[in-house]
Amino acid sequence: MNGNGSCYVARDVTLEKWTASYSYVLILSIFAEIKKRHMKRTKISEILAHPEEGSKVLIQGWVRAFRSKRFIQINDGSTIHTLQAVLDYEDFEEAMLKRVTTGAAIGVTGTLVASEGKGQSHEIQVESIEIIGDAAPEEVQKTVMQPKKHKLDFLREQAHLRFRTNTFGAVFRIRHGLSYAIHHFFHEKGFYNLHTPIITGSDAEGAGEMFRVTNFDLNNIPKNPEGEIDFSSDFFGKPVNLTVSGQLEAELGALALGQVYTFGPTFRAENSNTSRHLAEFWMIEPEVAFSDNDENMDLAESFLKYLCSFVLNNYPDDLAFLDDRDNKEQQQKPAKERDSMRLKERLEFVANNDFKRITYTEAIEVLQRSKPYKKKKFKYDVAWGKDLQSEHERYLVEKEFKRPVIITDYPASFKAFYMRQNEDDETVAAMDVLFPGIGEIVGGSQREERMDVLKRKCADFSVDEKEIWWYLDTRKFGTVPHAGFGLGFERMVMFATGMTNIRDVIPFPRTPLNAEF
After folding, report:
1. For range 205-212, the mean pLDDT
2. What residues does 410 pair with on adjacent strands?
3. 166-209+244-504 CATH choice from 3.40.50.150, 3.40.50.300, 3.40.50.920, 3.30.930.10
4. CA-to-CA distance for 65 and 74, rounded, in angstroms?
């Protein structure tokens, strides 16, 4: 028995009939508890993957349901599936069984047997139960652990508990799998992982929407004689921010190590509450020296195919649950707003198709010839020199080419300063990868390695050379063609799980006016 006296072993009714020796029963109970304590906990996923009928097992997890005073559904987070524990109610103290409530943490020891009921292949015949952590029923009723369907916005309010639901258990197991797959993919291809700064003095994107980092006493900010903030008195002696990208620093690593990738947090101070924006998110950014944009597209295509295949091959149960959920969500939408493919089909669509590659100019021509354009069905105009919108990108993928699409050679006017200028002097060697359901998922380019052109572009984009002197400096010492791209991790998780709001694929979302947990 534990210190709280919370371990309970089934009474041997037969034994009680032929002996009056309570001490004998107590000894048996003590020995049973000692034996149980020496048992190693087995994860439910391991039991279901390799069931050994007749074996004695110990599982520990959280109660999902306790039905008919006989069937306990237990989940330990290792799989979306629960394992049913079957007991004889009269063999246990009623006071203890009343503590077996939804959300309670318990340990169950018993024999694994084939299940005669529907919905599960195996179950445990219970010999002993340990109450590890109580869950008051009246408190559970106020939370997402209440066994019923909850709206996603309610689940976001209880992000500390939503992991325990089937939906978010599946989402975050797949998120983990994608994280592992990313590192494995790049490691196998000889890339080096580079940890780029979170605190930076540069704005890689030129957006200007960054979070300022300071050590000032905000009630007593020092000023210079001109009345401006005296950053020379701050911790770093200059204005610094949270990074929006590790790309520029990754380029420095690639120009020495050959090929590197970053996988870290990035931050945007956009006051946006849309389903596609976060203030804090994660980015994967590979950079490769001696590489052009064609090789860059090859890398992106093989990378994305690998990620989709990894989820399909390694998370069938979670994917099946989310696929069914996605289908039910689609059925609730008006017919014209439904996705043409289900979740699993979208992953297979990427994994099994070669990506179509077209230029931006060709994409504009295709869109202008399309029926939606001629019938004015597009919400946004299509014209050379304007950026493509999600509706245009999805049309190209889902209707025109019926495969993932990579668009290249965008106008320089709305792409970043570091992208390599093409010979036409109007476009840059950029590339965007378009997926079904969401449009753009990856953006990248060949980087501008020519010092004179890069300086001219800095002037065109109002980028202060003094702030990125170190970036320009690399073009003085053995400059080479190089390329890279960025993948927003949460956007990839959204695609792989079918979730439609980015706040539901990151454990603790950071958005305007929301920094709980």
Report:
1. 75
2. 428
3. 3.30.930.10
4. 7
